[in-house]
Amino acid sequence: MRVVIAGAGAVGRSVARELLENGHEVLLIDKSPEAVAVVRVPEAEWLLADACEITTLDEAALERCQVVIAASGDDKVNLVVSLLAKTEYGVPRVVARVNHPNNEWLFNDSWGVDVAVSTPRLMSALVEEAVSVGDLVRLMRFSQGDANLMELTLPEGASLVGTRVGEVAWPQDTALVTIIRGSRVLIPDPDDALAAGDELLFVAAGAREPELRTLLSPRPER
């Protein structure tokens, strides 16, 4: 897979190394000579240029890319790169970094963003996930289809404990994608019974979140 990363700072370089280790082809773009440090990621291709310019993206051959990652520290740059990648080059998957939470509402399909990754939101969500049992935590928003990745650790006394996955009337536009049970990662099977302490990962439409919270809530005390 060919991936172009706009922004060769610490975030962009870290993502590039991970992708290269997984066998992908990576091109890093940055207009700052200080950022274009080839020795830091020698296996990647490098381009010293402004990723907001069409001529740069032509040189990067975005039409041959499967993924573009807008990873700069400037939200305006990331939005422009995302929009150009999607509208001018038809890149199938555009991932954009959100630096300031107040700008998160802009990072949607109107700007060509398929997945918006907000570091502050993700960090706070991971903190919530670590300390919250029984609370539905939103980990990530997928712009296309207005879907969210959400997590909940099933508490003792939850109404679904002991219920088989296939017997649960999940809300519409909701998919249970993974059950993490101790050190095991389970692909949900209709015959699997949910257990207290299970970490459940869902992809669900934002509008279904209240229904999902209600479904997963503990049994009312008598």
Automatic annotation (TrEMBL):
It holds the Pfam family TrkA_C. GO terms for molecular function: potassium ion transmembrane transporter activity. Keywords: Ion transport, NAD, Potassium, Potassium transport, Transport. Residues 137-218 form the RCK C-terminal domain. SUPFAM superfamilies: NAD(P)-binding Rossmann-fold domains, TrkA C-terminal domain-like. Residues 1-117 form the RCK N-terminal domain. One of its GO terms (cellular component) is plasma membrane. InterPro entries: K_uptake_TrkA, NAD(P)-bd_dom_sf, RCK_C, RCK_C_sf, RCK_N, Trk_Ktr_HKT_K-transport. It comes from the Bacteria. The keyword Cell cycle does not apply. This is Trk system potassium uptake protein TrkA. It comes from Streptomyces hainanensis.
